Amino acid sequence: MASKRGTYRTGRERVESILDAAHMLFVRNGYRATSLREIASEAGISHPAVLRYFANRGEILTALIARLDTQSERVWNAAELRAGSAPSAAAVARANNAVPGWIELFTALLGEATSPEHPGHPMMLHRRQEGRRRGRAFFDSIGLSATESDLATAEIIAGWEGLQILTLYFPGQIDIPAQLDEFEGRVTHLAGASAVARIIAPTSEPRLPPALAGDDPRARIVAAAAKRYARHGYYETSMQMVADDAGVTRAALIHVAPTKQALLELVVAALYDRVTDDPWMLHLERLPRWVTAAEIVLLCEATVAAHPLHDTAARQLAWTRQELTTLLQAQGVAGADARTGADWLIAVGLGCMIAWLYEPDTIDPDVVLETVKARILGAATSALAPLAPTSER
Is residue 70 part of a domain? Predict the structure, then answer.
């Protein structure tokens, strides 16, 4: 019996050692850029020893998030006991922010696990469902109607997830707990939000950015790469995989994109080609799922400075922040409020895209964003710049 306990204890210690090493490497280099061999080396064990406990990096990342979620659960339960009711999102965010690497690891899995194939996908679906349950409990407790509570929950989850992405691109510039505090403090302004009309065009077909449409070799190559990124990210997508998916030879692929990074740049240019002259849209046009998934997976993956897309993504986000800030100022929102309002709008837009990838039937991005704009501007929805007709994607 003693021998068995000792073996179990050694096994648990080794698992924790692997998780600690992976935690450090994922935060420093990024999840997809870290190999199992590097994790084994950092943990001071052999590669086969790692494989005894984890079949792949996805299992390690999922285990890391589960470990952090256990800590977060203890914080939530303690806060619930102290308050005698559902704690605020801001209180939980402060506790999460105090855990080194929490935001980096969560954001990596957030994009990664949008693919139903990913081992962490069921866990992320469960935690989203639990988050909605807790959100509704909190907003119900302050007197919102059922419809308003659902809308407030959708907005705060989307905003929270989007802010975590923004803070990795703009460290020191985003105060997540303060933004959540402000939202919860103003949530009574959601009264009557159920009257916001859904803007849908059921007969419209999904649209593709021009560079992803067509049957010429270049369009097929760029679309094939984007679909691979949507499922596996940049690092795990090889040139040969893309050539095979596009139905072209390796030589034909190299003619279009001589290097792996050049191929990434073509895909990113195609995705950003969706940017319109109206920053309110936040790229929420009707699109096939894989287009939105490619953008979110790459955006979450590229939060690490070493990623080849990081600087481009940061510039695009910075442009959107400035455009929205200027637009809010022009409509009477003053100084710092315009900046925080712009960040919240972008965060909610990103979070809506993420929510739609996981559970498309639980969120209507147009309604959520219209509500955000109405509250920030302090005006009736009808007075806002109109949205182009869209549909449920």
Answer: no
| Residue 277 included in any domain | no
Helical pair 121-141 and 335-358, crossing angle rounded to 10 deg: 130
pTM: predicted TM-score of the whole model, two decimal places: 0.83
Residue with tokens 């449409």: 213
Spatial distance between the Cα atoms of 45 and 28, rounded to a whole number of angstroms: 20
Low-confidence stretches of the chain (pLDDT < 70) are: 1-9, 72, 75-87, 188-206, 274-286, 379-393
Residue 373 has a pLDDT of 83
| pLDDT recorded at residue 195 | 42
pLDDT at 311: 95
In-domain check, residue 350: yes
Residue 368 belongs to domain spanning: 84-199+306-393
Backbone angles phi, psi at 237, to 5 degrees: -105, 120
As a three-state string, the secondary structure of the chain is: CHHHHHHHHHHHHHHHHHHHHHHHHHHHHCCCCCCHHHHHHHHCCCHHHHHHHCCCHHHHHHHHHHHHHHHHHHHHHHHHHHHCCCCCHHHHHHHHHCCCCHHHHHHHHHHHCCCCCCCCHHHHHHHHHHHHHHHHHHHHHCCCCHHHHHHHHHHHHHHHHHHHHHHHHCCCCCCHHHHHHHHHHHHHHHCCHHHCCCCCCCCCCCCCCHHHCCCCHHHHHHHHHHHHHHHHCCCCCCHHHHHHHHCCCHHHHHHHCCCHHHHHHHHHHHHHCCCCCCHHHCCCCCCCHHHHHHHHHHHHHCCCCCCCCHHHHHHHHHHHHHHHHHHHHHCCCCHHHHHHHHHHHHHHHHHHHHHHHHCHHHCCHHHHHHHHHHHHHCCCHHHCCCCCCCCCC
Residue 284's pLDDT is what?
Answer: 53
Residue 376 lies in a domain: yes
Please report the pLDDT score of residue 9 as a whole number. 56
Domain count, the chain: 1
